[in-house]
Design goal:
9 helices, 221 residues, alpha/beta
């Protein structure tokens, strides 16, 4: 039986009751396609939101229910994103950080500090930035941002699914599942795919004759 990991409570370096502290997180680092989408949220300490948590620990129904509540109750919120082409140019880590910076800019609200999920700070932002490991489960501002990012990215996946139903984006959301990879073996690589990601890069190389054949196991990265 797995041991449950207890996360240490996050200790704010600035008081969120007297300072404007926003949180940022992204969705879509692992998928083979689509934008990496980030959210940034400045919560109202006088108007708390029940049920905030890491978006991955919430059901889609719960995320969808929380999204309008967050947008209504937050003092400010923003969405930022980077395209597959930008991801290929700057790599997914830098694209994720840039998407979070854009989400902060989209809030149009100057804050005293931004807390970001993970262990990397945004170096191209004009306010103090602090990285919080497992922040989406420890910091309500980051949890709220993760929910907005995930819901927005899923919304984009459903829109792409309507345009290209044969790719079944609504089912796998772009992640490298076995079913997704099997579909890609017989379908064209659309512009929404990230060409530098291992499985996509290998398929392209095979089709232009510059790569070797592979089995399903080699597709995963």
């Amino acid at each position: 039986m797995a041991t449950k990991v207890i996360l240490e409570p996050y200790v704010y370096t600035l008081d969120p009751n007297t300072h404007l502290i926003c949180g940022a997180d992204e969705a879509g680092r692992g998928p083979l396609m689509g934008n990496v989408v980030a959210g940034c949220v400045l919560l109202d300490p006088n108007n708390p939101i029940d049920g905030l948590n890491d978006s991955k620990k919430l059901t889609e129904k719960k995320r969808d229910a929380l999204e309008p509540i967050i947008k209504e109750k937050a003092l400010a919120w923003g969405i930022g994103q980077c395209t597959p082409q930008e991801i290929d140019e700057m790599n997914i880590l830098n694209a994720s950080l840039e998407a979070m910076r854009r989400a902060y800019v989209a809030m149009a609200k100057k804050c005293d500090q931004i807390l970001v999920d993970g262990n990397k700070i945004i170096k191209t932002i004009d306010i103090p930035c602090e990285a919080v490991v497992k922040g989406d489960a420890r910091v309500p501002q980051i949890a709220a941002a993760s929910i907005l990012a995930k819901v927005e990215r899923d919304r984009q996946m459903y829109a792409l699914d309507k345009e290209h139903p044969e790719y079944e984006f609504c089912k796998h959301k772009g992640y490298p599942t076995k079913a997704h990879l099997e579909l890609l073996a017989k379908l064209p690589i659309l512009d929404c795919y990230r060409k530098t990601y291992g499985p996509i890069k290998k398929i392209i190389q095979m089709r232009d004759g510059s790569g070797d054949s592979f089995d399903d196991g080699e597709l995963l990265f």
